[in-house]
Amino acid sequence: MRRETYWMFALFSFVISIVLAIIDTTTGIGFLGFIYSIAVFLPSVGLAVRRLHDTGKSGWWLLISLLPLIGLIVLIVFMASDSHDENSYGPNPKAS
Predict the structure, then answer these.
(1) Is residue 7 domain-resident?
(2) Residue 10 belongs to what domain range?
(3) Does 95 fall in a domain?
(4) Into how many domains does the chain fold?
């Protein structure tokens, strides 16, 4: 998966979350954002693991985000880095 695919998913998910939060606060419903978060949780973890694999890292590196601030910064750097040509998870997505 290319970087663009991951970041476009992250952007659309962020925008949808903001829109749902606005709807939740204005209508007083309060659970639309929660339902969306549950629905998008597994796909987002899957995409993050695929992105880490493209950079040559194990999916377990996703757990570094549990560290306050530093973990999130390290994870963003990993996600923004370029795909490696040679890794044990498959070919470079740019080459295919």
Answers:
(1) yes
(2) 3-80
(3) no
(4) 1
Query: Is 72 part of a structural domain of the chain?
Result: yes
What is the residue-wise DSSP string for 44-92?
A: HHHHHHHHHHHTT--GGGGGGGGSTTHHHHHHHHHHHSPPPSS-TT---
Is 52 among the domain residues? yes
pLDDT tens per residue, range 32-82:
999 999 999 999 999 999 999 888 899 999 999 999 999 999 999 999 988
Residue 84 corresponds to which tokens in the numbers above?
């490696």
- pLDDT tens track for 22-43: 999 999 888 999 999 999 999 9
